[in-house]
Amino acid sequence: MDIAAALKGYSQATRQIQLDTAMPGAFAVERFHGREAMDESFRFEIDVLSSTPFLDLNPLLGTAIRLRLATGAGERCWNGYVVRAAYSDTDGEITRYRLTIASWLELLRLRRNCLYFVGLDTEGICERVFGDYPEARWRCELKEPLRTFDLRGQYRETDFDFVMRQLSEAGLSFRIEHAQDAGEKPSGNHTVVVFDRRAEQPEGSTVAYHRQDVGDPDGVMTYFTTRHQLVPDRVTATSWKAGNLVALAGHAQGEADRDAPAMPAREVLDAQRAGRFETSDQAQRYASQRLDALRLSKRIHYGAGSSRTLEIGKVHTLTGYPDGAVSFVPLTLEHEAVNNLGADIAQLLEHGELEQGRYRNRFAAVPPGVPIVPPYRDRPVVHGVQTATVVGEPSSRVSSTRDHQVRVQFPWMRGTAPLPGGLTDTASRSNPQGHAPGDHRSGVLARIAEQAAGPNFGHSFTPRVGAEVVIGFDSGNIDMPVVLGQLYGGRVQPPFAAGEGSSANHAGVLTGMQTQALDGTAGSRWVMDDSSGQLRHELSNSVANSRLAQGYLIDQQGAVRGAYRGEGFDLATEGWGIVRAGEGVLVSGTARTGAASTQMDVGESVAQLKQAVKTAQSLDESAARATAGRLTANAAQADFLKTIDPAQDGKYAGAVNGQSATKPAAGGAGGSGDPVERFAVPAVVLESPQNVVMSTGNSAVSYAEKHVHLTAQDDAHLAAGATVAGASGEAASLYAAAGGIKAVAGHGPVSVEAHASSMQILADQSVRITSSDDRIDVLAKDAIVLQQGPSRITLKGADILVETPGSFAVKAGAHPFMGPGAQSPVLPALPIPVPLALYDEQLRFVNADGVPLSKVAYQLKLADGTTAAGVTDDAGKTERVASASPLGILSALLTPTQMVDCCGRTSGTPPTPVEVKIKGVQTNQFQLGESEKTVEVDAHERVLTAGEVEMARTVFKDGIDYDKVRVHKGSYFWFNLQNKNTAVTPNGKMYFLDDLYVDDFSAMNGPDIWKRSLFMHEMTHVWQYQLGYAVRWHALTVTIRGQSAYEYTVAPGAVFHDYNMEQQGNLVADYYAVQVLKAPFAVFHRGYVGTPFELDHVLAPLLEDPKNADNLPK
């Protein structure tokens, strides 16, 4: 019998090893060798025989396969997938092939990926990876909580290596359970069971310990032994957490074995990288898991035999062992089996064992209850650096965290919004959107490395969204990216680009930093210019073009060095500038050779001030001798000199912050003993060896709360193109020590007045009063006395008295004596200055709403019969009324100074002044110069009548809150615009002057029926105001056009909101007259009046929805 014929009659039904494939009946199993292990994918190598040579094995790859082994209770199945099929050999009649089967986990070795997982724990990561494999069946049996990771990266790893690493780091193991199905077609049904060290260990079979010749169909165990070995007894795990600036550590200590000799500690220190733990509990759990993994090999059982029911990860019991029953959990299990193909095939193939068949295995196991933890797997190291792009909120320029981190996206990241040229196809059905969102949803958060970083000090650089950055990885860990810097390239050019290919006019001498505002405009700039002989340092900001430049000053535009502007320093801004120093400011134009001396050395100013003090004291003594006013501020000047003079108070009294406050000796580093200068008070000193100029094209203001001291060694000049005015609250003295004093008015009078006392004109020699062109008048209220020596002439009342002890001679060409005559002198009144007044008061006029009546002409009637007139200011205030004694203010006549007609018949007549009675107001001595009384200009006010409300509802329905409407009899006085024959409604209240006001507009009939239409015009403004329209402001721009502002025409398609506020008022008034009253003669104006059809069409939107603000004027 030949082999081919034997195989053709072959049947698997009576064989101990059977194989189900996608090619039924094509093969007979000759033998197999397989390995199963904890945390491994099983793998079986199966030698099969076939009578068909050169079979096409390609259809088998990736298909399900089932290997069956006969047992006492039936059979045991291993389900898997064909991962390799190969031709082995042939003798011409029969061909031997080798099939390799493995778990679906083996498929994970075939895909290598670069991917980030965000916000997932280990189970979630496995679910995401396994989701791309339809063959995957798995479940978890977990007792300990899993850590959720912000970021986990798979970089150039196979899916298998990545998943194994994640399980290892989480302390999770897995075993593979096979479905014991017996269907006709293989399903490949096996389940990966992921469990932790606290999970329950399932029960397995019982195995007898015996010789191999015992006929147990499930087999026996012929060899069993135990190995003991030393292992580490302590693990310490530590890692630096940068976010909290703390090292997190965990410690795990194993229990010492009983009766074991004392040995030194065998510690494993795991401190390989930062950022591994978020909490101390995580560090502790990690240390404990690592210790369990190391102690797993402390006690290992090894066994061998023919037991066909052993399974990985289950608790089996060995009976018949000399030491008693032993339980064990297999960690690895290797199978070797030969099929029972019968005597014919065994003889033909010359393999006697093929007649009866054979099965053997060997295993390694641990005692039950021992925590099973996989060994730690090293993560792959990312070598070198990579580039990435900063991403963030859409339309934002900056997107960072409080901890100085930015979100980045790498070029290799695939997803919905990859970088330009990137891939959108993620080749994943579990995560089709990928991990490249292109915005703030990117989970890759990278810390930014700085040259200096510490608690509230260091550099701060935040890459903008869209910037290309250089990424390094802490400890080569893909999960810990760090921004090392930013790159120029492509469209991103350096701010000071120079050299080949640039438009700059230099070879690259500019160094510095340029920022950009978030809206893309220019920001701040720091430039160092290293041009030979033209060194420059500049800080600038685009806001108000502010800059500080030092050295060789030029005009720099972009990267181009511009025109020369000078040397030194330039501090300039188009905005506000301020120099503020809490202890004083020194501005000096005196050069210090070699930058000698100290910061606040004011030696020149001290010397000049000493001369000023000496000059002022000399002039003060001279004035005192002449009984002129004294220079009483001299003492303050001398006191100030002490505060800046280092010989007095202008110096440091002792050491400063532990350092001696003495000036260095010339040419040496030691102190000279001279104190370092400082201001004793926060003074501002301005000093120059030449000239100091203050100049402005407008006004200059100088104020001193105490003294102003001006001293000149030579001349002091004060010149004004218009008026020089000086005022003193007390006395004024003008003294010339050596020369004279002149008061000359070139084109006007010279007036010297003494308001409250006498005036004296004294001279040691003669006094000359000359009138070159007119006369000299000497006037007095009581008497005039001319006296020389013992003689005098007295003019008093109607008498002239001449007294002299000598002769009295009158010489003239004639001596006519006319009759009596008299003429009273007109004496100018001397005012009472407000600062010197004993009583004063100021009025402020407002209307009923508290609005100031500004720019109103007033005439105040005073109790003494006099009046005070003027125009109120913007706050409605009058000038102050001053008196020497209490003086009552009785009334005021108010007259608008500006006229604009509004809402009524225009009139060219001037306005009638309004008289306002004032009660209980008089000048007083309390709060002199500050007292103020408010006078309210009242007007008659009433609510709407029932008839008026009914009128308004015909158009506005519920579009107006009628309870808020008021009708006034009198002027509004808003900007004083209300003229005669007008009505205004600026604030939701209607103001009618006396000639238009009535107590009930709904009662108007006959010749006055037009007032109903006028009322409806004003109610239109009430409706506009209550819907939020700025009536009072728009009135100024509309009514300034005069009568044309009120006139309207009805254009085709025009609706209510196409008309201005006054035209809308007329349209409503006309509609009411024409359509409601059916009385066209009730129209109150003389302009065009629309037809009933036109009025209905234009007002249709308003009549339909009066509450809709879209009906307001556009």
TrEMBL record:
It holds the Pfam family Phage_base_V. Residues 517-623 form the Putative type VI secretion system Rhs element associated Vgr domain. Residues 444-488 form the Gp5/Type VI secretion system Vgr protein OB-fold domain. Residues 673-820 form the DUF2345 domain. InterPro entries: Gp5/Vgr_OB, T6SS_Rhs_Vgr_dom, T6SS_RhsGE_Vgr_subset, T6SS_Vgr_RhsGE, Vgr_OB-fold_dom_sf, VgrG2_DUF2345. NCBIfam families: vgr_GE (TIGR01646), VI_Rhs_Vgr (TIGR03361). This is Type VI secretion system Vgr family protein.
